Prior knowledge:
By secondary structure, the protein is an alpha+beta fold. Helices cover 20% and strands 18% of the residues. It has a 3-stranded antiparallel beta sheet, covered by helices on one side. The longest helix has 11 residues, at 73-83.
Amino acid sequence: EIPWSDIADTVNTLRDWGPSWQNSDQSITAIADQVRCLAIHSDGTLTGYAVLVPGNGSLLQIGVHPDARRQGIGTALINHALTATPTGQLRLINVDAADHGFARFMRAVPSEQIQGQFELIMALNDHA
């Protein structure tokens, strides 16, 4: 477990798609005192990481270097993150549905997909 500031500048090299604004690097920096950051290094290089809000079980980001995938790093991060939550469950929101590799990973760990978010649009009228 390390401070977010120790890896914030390098995590973008481990992910295949950028996080939504709610889970962005800047958003995590703004609440750095409320998150737990888990990191795995190999030969001094960041190999995998996970950032979560333990109070509500939100997993804000998780990433594993492409050359280190399918070696149990992501599963180890998920398992450790689960122990940090009061309910033993994690919530992931705004996951890229087009990332089939991540979907396979989530099927390999205990998870349940709940269909997502609806976007509401309201037209603004001129009330002059």
